[in-house]
Design brief:
This protein is mostly helical and 153 residues long. It contains four helices and no strands. It has a single domain (2-127), classed as Up-down Bundle (Methane Monooxygenase Hydroxylase, Chain G, domain 1), CATH 1.20.58.
Length: 153
Amino acid sequence: MNDLISVLSKEETLLLQINDILKQQEQAVISKNLPQISAATAKLEEMLNAFENLEEERRDFFQRLKETLNLPQNMTFYEYAKSCDGVLLESLFKVTEQLNNTALRIERLKQLSDFQLHYIDVLVKLLNPQEPSTYNVKASLKKVTPHWFEIES
């Protein structure tokens, strides 16, 4: 069980670091600092891989524990944590809290990114309209559609 608590503690620490990186990435998006966005993304990818490895380690420990203690194979980690002393359950709640914080930070970053993309889209449409202009290159008008006439010289 100490192995499980140790893994959960490492996961919590890693999630705190991931949240810090997400904060950095948020600031980079706000300031439009592309090198910082790129660096934060690379760090984030590394941290997420490390978290995935820790989660796999936790699942393996728990699976071995179920086999050793002859626990039901369909028992969830949460059910097991509830049946143990409070330390394991407390560690699990800390990880869950950090996962929720991470999810909120990711949602905020997504909203910021969506705003930035929408802003860029508005600028592109403003600077490069899709509709044909009223005047052609000679500054004269021409027929655009059967019901829309433009003056030509």
